Amino acid sequence: MVLMTSKANHLKNFLSDRFILFPLIAGLIVLFLSLILFYLNLSILKGGKIVLHLSLKGVGDLVGNSSWVLFLIFCFWILFLLNQFLAYSFYHKEKVLAYLFSYFSLWFVLLGLFFVYSLTLIN
120: Cβ–Cβ under 8 A, 6 or more apart, which residues? Predict the structure, then answer.
């Protein structure tokens, strides 16, 4: 019983910290935006090939299905959750390290949104 109360207090303190809560909420919003962007623009090409990479000459040298883009968004979700879990585990020992993990996860998710947006511009 005491252990559960202690964990509940740790989670409450973790989520009440504004330096943790902002990247957590912003990262979730950005991940949902990348999913919406994917479904609005790239999922229309069902079964069709999409260009994943352009060479310097402007020729598509890497082509794949839209399911690969969805898989990459899923990988961004997993890495975001992993970084937030690490931030939670380090929060009561080293707050600065927890802040770094939390903001790194936000930065990583923003890079993922940029990736999905650039793929929508190419295709």
Answer: 37, 41, 42
Q: Which two tokens stand for residue 40?
A: 């609005």
Is residue 112 predicted with pLDDT exceeding 60?
Answer: yes
The rounded percent of the chain whose pLDDT value lies above 90 is 33
Task: List strand residue ranges (DSSP E) for the chain, in order.
Answer: 50-54, 60-64
Task: Output the CA–CA distances (angstroms, integers) from residue 23 to 18, 38, 105, 110, in the order listed.
Answer: 9, 22, 8, 11
Contact status, residue 111 vs residue 32, Cβ threshold 8 Å:
no
> Left if phi > 0, otherwise alpha if psi is -120 to 50, otherwise beta: which for 83?
alpha
Per-domain residue ranges for the chain?
67-123
Segment 56-79, tens digit of pLDDT: 777 677 777 777 878 888 999 999
Residue 50: strand, helix, or coil: strand
CB atoms within 10 A of CB 89: 14
Contact (CB, 8 A) for 60 and 53: yes
